[in-house]
Amino acid sequence: MTSMPQPEVEGSLRRVAIVGTGLIGTSIAMAAARAGSEVVGWDADAPTLAAAADRGALRPAASFEDAVADADLIVVATPILAVGEVVATALRTAPDAIVTDAASVKGRIIADVAAAVDDSELLARFVPGHPMGGSERSGPEHASASVVDGIVWVLTETDDVDEDRVGSLERWVARLGARPVRLDPDRHDRLVAMVSHLPQVASTSLMGVAAVEEADEPDILLLAAGGFRDLTRLAASQPTLWSDILVANRDQVAAAIDAFVAHLHDIRDRILGDDAQGVESVFAEAKVARLGLAAKPTVRAGVAVWQVEIPDRPGALARITAVLGEGGVNIEDLQIVHSPEGGRGTVHVTVAAETADATADVLEGAGYDPIRLA
């Protein structure tokens, strides 16, 4: 990483240009506007840009050049195959702006930009990024500033990028309500292959297997319960978007698939070997890991924190607070852990330590399954 005398970049990144106004681009625009930035947007697809503008997220620009003129920050949220060239054009067109992207693969993007830009001074202003939010839905009509709330927003460092600009972007991301995290590009691609790209493959494959079986068993999907629906939710994602992502991260995705297949084979062999204890141990280890997945809150002395899952529907939060109130439990603090996933949410309920057991009894009596975090 290099550091060289540059124009002042901290400020507050007041003027933000969003290039690509789909779900994630428009969601970032809405969060930036909420944080006080002036947001201008442009998209090659005019109806998509108009829909983003209708959400009140941004002022639509007449052209790419108009969008990025005088920008302090340019966020490129186009389809992954276009990101490299758009970033390169942005660096050349807006000589003072920090440029970042929202693609879920970093190695390919960094290589594409380096191939298109042979100028270290330009590359010093490019900070590759990946906001880890979204959903299986697409388009600006499904965008929301809440998509950004509480998410990890990865920033990756290259040999050319200027440290001051990375820091400036980190502070802007935090102002939006996200959590900036720095990762090496290769490490990022390996980790997201396992926790983001592989789930998409697994969900799509499971739905595909069921669809093939449905050809001979038309009633099979009538039997699909909540577990099947949860696991196949991602299969409703946009095919072109995901095929481009998976191919762009092909080596890491292939390694993740190989590891998953090996794990499936291990479970299959335990089942065929009548090894009920071995199957149980696999499930037990996975359960422990899953229960530790939710973010743990900062805990002060003298309190207990319970994690409770609630359905994502109107009145769900009101019900849990009413249940606790009727049970005589005083809530010290309550935190909703936002997730880009749908279907359910997680609540952290903080109570006085001496009421921890009573709180659990009240929650369990109302049908909840609380997990103590602290």
Integer average pLDDT: 88
Distance between the termini: 40 Å
Overall structural class, as computed from helix and strand content, comes to alpha/beta
Residue fraction in strands: 15-25%
Q: Roughly how many Å is the radius of gyration?
A: 23 Å
CATH H-tier superfamily of the largest domain: NAD(P)-binding Rossmann-like Domain
Number of helices: 14
Q: What overall geometry do the principal axes of the alpha carbons give?
A: globular
What's the order of the H and E elements?
A: EHEHEHEHEHHEEEHEHHHHHEHEEHE
| CATH-derived architecture of the largest domain | 3-Layer(aba) Sandwich
Which consecutive residue ranges, at least 5 long each, have pLDDT under 50? 1-10, 295-299
Q: What is the CATH T-level topology of the largest domain? A: Rossmann fold
Number of domains: 3
Order of strands, main sheet, comes to 3-2-1-4-5-6
Give a count of the beta strands, DSSP E runs of length 2 or more.
13
Biggest sheet overview: 6 strands, parallel
Helix content: 40-55%
Q: Quick one: CATH class of the largest domain?
A: Alpha Beta
Q: Would you spell out the secondary-structure blueprint of this structure?
A:
Blueprint: E1 15-19, H1 23-34, E2 38-42, H2 46-54, E3 59-60, H3 64-68, E4 73-76, H4 80-93, E5 98-101, H5 107-116, H6 120-123, E6 126-127, E7 129-131, E8 152-156, H7 163-175, E9 179-183, H8 185-214, H9 226-231, H10 239-248, H11 250-272, H12 276-291, E10 303-311, H13 316-326, E11 333-337, E12 344-352, H14 356-365, E13 371-372
Offer a quick outline of the entry.
Helices cover 46% and strands 16% of the residues. The protein is α/β, with parallel strands linked by helices.
